Amino acid sequence: MILQAAALSVLLCLVHSFTIQGPFEKSEEYSGNTIEDDEFSVSTLLEKANVNVGKNLDEPLVMFGDIAVPTGLQNADPCTARGCLWPKATDGNVYVPFRIANAFSQRERSTIIAGLQSFAESTCIRFTPFNRQRDFVDIMSLSGCFSFVGRRGRGQTVSLSRRGCVFRQIIQHELLHALGFNHEQTRSDRDQNVRILLENVMRGTESNFRRIQTRNLGTPYDYNSVMHYGRFAFSRNRRPTIIPIPDENVSIGRATEMSPIDILRVNRLYRCNSTASRPDLKPVQRNHFL
Ligand SMILES: [Zn+2]
């Protein structure tokens, strides 16, 4: 009860500070790049919600902030071993079955469903209620916010803890992982766009800043991606860990929903404009992932 009250007050406090510091009410001197202003960035929310991740042995191994990895597999990206796209139906849509655990309240459930449906507004991804399909996303409230990258086969956990993960940007972020996307700041071309300050990174969390040979699908690096961490992600000393270059003052990692480039990437990865289903193209063909 005390814990619940504490969690609620933290949440109210977050909402409150977010409200009074809304982007349209800031004074001209406002830099937008202080640690306090990052209160609602995806990575801040993830860090707060994920403090207890890994303490429950029944849960998947979570690395790289919020990416679940199969136990024993040291290579972070499961997609490198095999294809991980969700299959495309003959009508050109990509149906991703989902199940939502009963642990969520009606209101949380509605927020989650709205987040899932947001994909249908701008992409060919159609999250549809689980109906005994073989592969599906199994949305649960475990001890943080995390997801596997790409389709894993069978029911795959996407954890959206009731304590801190049921927000639109987090829901979209975790489902973008499930669709096959990594964090923006791990992109192969990130060093031309950001500088990583490892000296400010909390010991033991450096792996969050590794670079991956991603397929970038012809899209530009996007500071506003919902997959981009904030400037102070995993900071051990309240100093920045990610600085945009060449202009240090550009704001990063503050998306509150998918950016136009996030949407473009989904459309490119899943070839959303093509309705033709090619029988020779297996849905898990490896060279189409990320
Ligand atoms: Zn993530």
From TrEMBL:
EC number: 3.4.24.-
GO BP terms, alphabetized: proteolysis
Domain Peptidase M12A residue range list: 75-273
Cofactor(s) the protein requires to work: Zn(2+)
Residues that hold Zn(2+) according to the record: 173, 177, 183
GO MF annotations in UniProt: metalloendopeptidase activity; zinc ion binding
Co-factor note (free text): Binds 1 zinc ion per subunit.
Name of the featured protein: Metalloendopeptidase
Active site: 174
Enzyme class, spelled out: hydrolase
Keyword set includes Nucleotide-binding: no
Top-level lineage group: Eukaryota
Signal peptide span: 1-17
Keywords: Hydrolase, Metal-binding, Metalloprotease, Protease, Signal, Zinc
One protein family per Pfam: Astacin
Lineage: Eukaryota, Metazoa, Chordata, Craniata, Vertebrata
